[in-house]
Amino acid sequence: MKQNSITFLVPVIPEKVQKLLDQLKEIKRNSKQGISKDLDALSIIHYARWVVIDHGKSWIGDTEKRNPKLLLVLDYDGSQNEMLLRFSEQTGNILDLVYVFCKGYPPLDSLTPESRVAYLNEHKIHDAAVYIGAPGRSVDQIQKEKHLRNFIREFVDSRNWEGVPAQTIHSRIKDEVLSNPEFDFLQQQTVTFPRINYPGVVLLGIGLIAIAPLLIIWALIVHYFYERKDVNFTRKRSQLSDVLLTELEASEDFKHQNQFTQLVDMKEGNVRLISIKFMFLLSNLLIKFIFNQGKLMGIPTIHFAKWVMFEKNSRVLFFSNFDGSWQQYLGDFIDNSGWGLTGIFSNTKVFPKTNFLITGGAYLEEYFLAWSRNSQLVTNYWYSAYPDLSIKNVNNNTLIRVELMKTLSERRAAKFLKLL
Question: Where are the transmembrane segments (predicted)?
Answer without folding.
Answer: 201-226, 273-291
